[in-house]
Design brief:
This protein has helices spanning 13-26, 48-61, 93-104, 124-134; strands at residues 2-7, 10-11, 37-43, 65-76, 85-91, 116-121, 137-146, 148-155, 158-166. The protein has one domain (2-166): Cyclic Phosphodiesterase, Chain: A. A hairpin with a 2-residue loop joins strand 8 and strand 9 (158-166). It has 170 residues and is α+β, with helices and mostly antiparallel strands.
């Protein structure tokens, strides 16, 4: 079993509809988990208790906050299995700052920039074509609010929510 920690933005209506439409068409994980920012990537090396304890402290330290995502990029992830070519939706500078502050206080393996995965492709040319079609700049930015963290378990390709941590801090 792998453990992950995510933040699921509550997107404004306009952003929610286009993000959902893209994910429904291009992300095999669409039905498993909502569009989210990963704070701890799925790992078997961290225990549920360790990540839950850190998430509880984090939730008590951070108040709910607004997020805006304003650009797209392509990335090839060797851990991606059949779909290693991803298109990411990136938070703007102020949103990324908050998300990076959160990540810095969590146990993790590896470095990554906070992002929302919009699509997954088997072929690199498909991901690049998607990015050419939509462009890199998202105008207007996709806006939402993050008010909670979610601890997930991933077993045999199935995702289940273990715990929910409401952001209450200042």
């Amino acid at each position: 079993m792998s453990i992950a920690l995510i933040a699921i933005p509550i997107w404004e209506e306009g952003a929610a509809s286009w993000i959902d439409a893209i994910r429904r068409t291009h992300d095999p994980q669409h039905g498993m988990v909502a569009a989210h920012v990963t704070l701890v990537f799925p790992t078997e090396s961290l225990s549920e208790a360790t990540v839950a304890a850190a998430a509880a402290i984090l939730a008590a330290s951070f108040a709910p906050f607004d997020i805006a995502c304003d650009r797209l990029s392509w990335y090839s992830d060797p851990r991606g299995g059949k779909y290693p070519n991803l298109v990411y939706l990136h938070p703007d500078a102020s949103s990324a700052w908050v998300l990076n502050e959160m990540r810095a206080q969590l146990p993790q393996e590896g470095e990554f920039d906070p992002h929302v995965t919009l699509s997954r492709f088997g072929a690199v040319y498909s991901a690049k074509a998607f990015l050419r079609q939509f462009g890199e700049d998202v105008m207007p930015p996709a806006r939402g609010r993050i008010d909670a963290l979610h601890l997930l378990a991933i077993r045999n390709g199935q995702v289940s929510m273990l715990r929910h941590f409401t952001l209450t801090g200042e």
